[in-house]
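To whoever picks this up:

The parser on our side crashed when reading a file containing two proteins. I've narrowed it down to the boundary between the first structure block and the second sequence. Both blocks are reproduced below exactly, byte for byte. First block:
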Amino acid sequence: MLHVYCDSGGYRRELRKLEALGEIKLFQYRYDRDGNSKIRNRPPSSNPSWSQGDSTWADSEGSWDDYLGSEKWPEILLLLGANCAKDVQHLDSAYLANCAAFLTSDKDDLVSNADAISQLLAGC
């Protein structure tokens, strides 16, 4: 089954059928708070701010260190820049969930850097 990450603008209705058929498994972490409720699988979070969390501290498992980004976080941040913090979070969550595809509508920051992103996260 192919793991597919959709950022807040990446979901398409056609994906529902592929997921129902067991061809793909969709992931999304709602960093933007306007995520798609049809995507039920939540990947590991990557450096969320307190307001981006979706549970109380008492309900959280582990420590704050468990929510830090992957070893790729600094490189993704360097590639996209600090002004694209949420894009970095989405990409790193996709990496942490072993997603083979990343769907987005962000042509400025993500699609324009697709080759470099793909090279950086190759083998994920």
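<<boundary where parser fails>>
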Amino acid sequence: MNKKKDKDKLTQAQYQILRKNNKDTLTAEKWIKDTGLNVRAFNQLPVQLLQAQQAAHALLTHNLNLLTTEQIKTLRAFQRKVVNKKIRHKLKPDHAHPVLNIATKIKRIEHRQQAN
């Protein structure tokens, strides 16, 4: 039998804290994934690359009709680089600029369309 000693058992309060912590972690990871970010790389990437990854995901899912084929290629290439662990570590914050520039252009186009 594999019985735990009394000192190794969790109290009811400790168990509730552990359970709440696990639930919150799963909720946060789901939100991170839903926004288009890589959960495993979330703490390792610079903020600019995270912003670019999120912008690329949003553009490819919501604004595909406003993108040119060249912009789509750029966004997908960036997503592939961020997903690949070996390439991801070599990325610098400057690699986010083309993606963020595309996001800004599309936001301007959307704003003009809404104004008209």
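After patching the parser it read the second block fine. Residues 12-34 form the longest helix (23 residues). The chain has five helices and no strands.
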